[in-house]
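Q: Here's a chain of 107 amino acids. Please give me its 3D structure as tokens.
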Amino acid sequence: TDELEYLIVISNGSSANATNVRFTDTMPDFTTYQTSSIAVDRDGNETFEIVTPTNATEADAALKGIITVLGQNIAVFPGIGGNENTDAGGTLSPSAVTAVKYTITID
């Protein structure tokens, strides 16, 4: 089985807070999200913290964001205050960097 790892870097290059920050992705047809593969680098130091799911919605307040995996769709609400339940993106302070990585398998 072939695997692809996605790495998405989200940064705020402005001098003001970036608000309502969110990232969404639809995985290609004939691929499957690899369970428990999402990891978040919340502070841009290239240290990824694994997000361990308990169900289809993966959440960890310590990671300052919420990640949802539902079918072929991934939504990431990074930054402070990100909330999947209200569809609100989080806030990234000036020069803040966060990254998300996950793996899919080709069916």
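Q: Can you summarize the key feature?
A: The longest strand covers residues 97-106.
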